[in-house]
Amino acid sequence: MTQSQVILITGASDGFGHLAAEKLLAKGHVVYATARRVDRMRDLQQQGAQTLHLDVTDTAEVQRVVSQIIAEQGRIDVLVNNAGFGQYGVVEAVSEDQLKYQFDVNVFGMHRLQQAVLPHMRDRQSGKIINLASIVSHVSAPLLGWYAATKHAIKGMTEALRMEVRDLGIDVVAIEPGAVRTGFEAVAFASMETLDTPADYDPLIEGMSNATRNMYASSPGPQSTARAIVRAVQARRPKAVYKTTPDSHILPRLKRLIGDRRYGALNLWMARRTLKRS
C-alpha cells in the first residue's frame, strides 16, 4: 500500500489538476487543491480535499498557502505545478502586457511555488516537484509562439532544477501532454479574438485556427495525463519526463527527422489545406 503523501496542486479548478486531485484523493493522499476559482473545487472538497484560493502571480499569497500547509501537516511531500493558460495569436500581435502576464502565470508562477516549497524539502532531504510542461516545450507552430516560449522556458528550468536538487533527496519531473480536450483551447482562442492583428495574417489565422480546432476535436481527454501525474507522485523513482499523448511522442521525433524548415512547411501546408476545404 502506498504511503499517504501531502500534495499541493495548483490550477486544480479544472483540467489536469482537477482530475489528478480526484485520483490522488481516491488513493488516500492528503490533497491541497488550489486555484483562483475556489467555487469550481467544491466537488473536490466534498471528496476530502482542502481547497484554498491561490493566485500564482501573488508572491505573498503563495507564501501564505505554503506556510499554512506546513503548519497544518508539518510537510509538503509533492508540489504539482499545474497552473497555466494559453494565449494564442501571431507573435507580432500579442502586446507586451499580455506577454508579461502569460510568463507571470506560466513561468514565474512555477518559480514562486518552487522557491516556497524547496527550503522545506531541503530541510527534510525529501520531496517531489512535478511541473506541467507540454509538447510545445519541443515544437512550436503559428499562433502558439508565445505560449510555446513559456513551455520552452519551463523545460529548460526543470532540467536544470532536476540536476541541482538530485543529491538533496528531491525528484523533479516534467509532464508533457500534447493536444488534449480540457477547455484550454477555448480560452486560448477567445484570447486571440481580443488581439489587434494586422489583416496580412488573416489567411494564416483562419487556416491554423481550422487545423487546430480539428486537431482538438479528435484529441484525447485529460485521463492519460492525470494518470501520469499520479504515477509520478507514487513512484519511488519517477521518470524524468512523462509524455502522455501519442502526438507528444511523435511530433518532436518527426521534427528531428525532417528538420526545422520541412517541419514548418508541414504546419503551413496543413493550414492551407483547411482553407481549400472550406
What would you say this structure looks like, in words?
54% of the residues lie in helices and 12% in strands. It is globular and about 60 Å long. The N and C termini lie far apart (55 Å). Helix 4 (96-124) packs parallel to helix 5 (145-165) and helix 9 crosses helix 10. Strands 3-2-1-4-5-6-7 form a seven-stranded parallel sheet, with helices on both faces. The chain contains ten helices and seven strands. With 278 residues, the chain is α/β, with parallel strands linked by helices. The chain has a single domain (6-202, 220-248), classed as Rossmann fold. It has helices at 15-26, 42-46, 59-73, 96-124, 145-165, 184-192, 202-217, 223-234, 246-258, 260-277; strands spanning 6-9, 30-35, 50-53, 78-81, 127-132, 170-176, 241-243.
Summary keywords:
Rossmann fold; single chain; seven-stranded parallel beta sheet; alpha/beta; 278 residues; 10 helices
Short description:
The chain has 278 residues and is of the alpha/beta class. It has ten helices and seven strands.
What pattern of helices and strands is seen along the backbone? Answer: EHEHEHEHEHEHHHEHH
- The CATH superfamily bears the name NAD(P)-binding Rossmann-like Domain
Amino-to-carboxy terminus distance: 55 Å
Please state how the strands of the largest beta sheet are arranged side by side: 3-2-1-4-5-6-7
What number is the mean pLDDT? Answer: 94
Helix segment count? 10
If you compute it from the alpha carbons, what radius of gyration comes out, rounded to the nearest whole angstrom?
A: 19 Å
Proper CATH architecture: 3-Layer(aba) Sandwich
What fraction of residues sit in β-strands? 5-15%
CATH topology, by name, is: Rossmann fold
